[in-house]
Amino acid sequence: MRTVAVTRYVAPLREGGSLPAIVEAGDLGTYVLKFRGAGQGRKALIAEIVAGEIARRLGFAVPEIVLADLDPELARSEPDPEIQDLIRNSAGLNLALDYLPGSLGFDPLASPPDSEHASRILWFDALVVNVDRSLHNTNLLQWHGRLWLIDHGASLYFHHDWFGRGRVPDRPYVAVRDHVLLPFASELPTADAELVPRLTPDVLRGVLELVPDEWLANEPGFESAEEVRAAYVGYLTDRLADPRPWVQAMEDARG
Q1: Which of 16, 50, 96, 203 has the most CB atoms less than 10 A away?
Q2: What whole-number distance in Å separates Cα of residue 84 and Cα of residue 95?
Q3: How far does Cα 123 stand from its chain's mean position?
Q4: How far apart are CA 232 and CA 216, in angstroms?
Q5: What b/e string do you get for 208-221 counting C-beta neighbours within 10 Å, with b at 16 or more?
Q6: Same domain, residue pair 93 and 111
Q7: Segment holding 31, helix H or strand E
């Protein structure tokens, strides 16, 4: 995964709860920056990498994810005290996604998706337990004739409670009834059969290798970053194991 140096804070994206921002970087690219010092912290950034890169390996369109080095001196040029504090509290390594200029928010009424694509996206969201793909906040963009998946920081909620009730790999996907694509997802069994073989333990380990050690360090109950990586791979591998009752539960939710 590439690392870029943030050179200019351009504008806040205030529709995001964690106050992400449009920034420019030393590679002349423009990105949407997700701050490590925001309220959701480093685990939201871990979820962005893990869920986003799983989605990419399943063939979905996902903006390039990069690591973004943030100099706290950039806070000096910002008049907003809240933004100043956010930049200072996020000094060092953060996460950014390639900015898609001119993209439009997905409207299922204006551009209904085909059932195959809708089923595959719903299946993916259920795998990573993404609770943030509703009609009111689709986190889907239309750009250059494709549907792009964004904002996966609310996925993998189990990692907020490694040793509690959240760590149940076959738990049903409770957000399914509010999912924007549920009415279109009539081919879930086909999606399940197609996508499961693509996510081998080796593929999952490769995704987790993209997460910086410093974001995995000092996790309570674990002795090393590698142990935490193995726990993520173990959870996802268990969730993918037969018979996957969470897939049947989504079929039942469709009625």
Answers
A1: 96
A2: 18
A3: 14
A4: 11
A5: beebbeebbeebee
A6: no
A7: strand 30-34
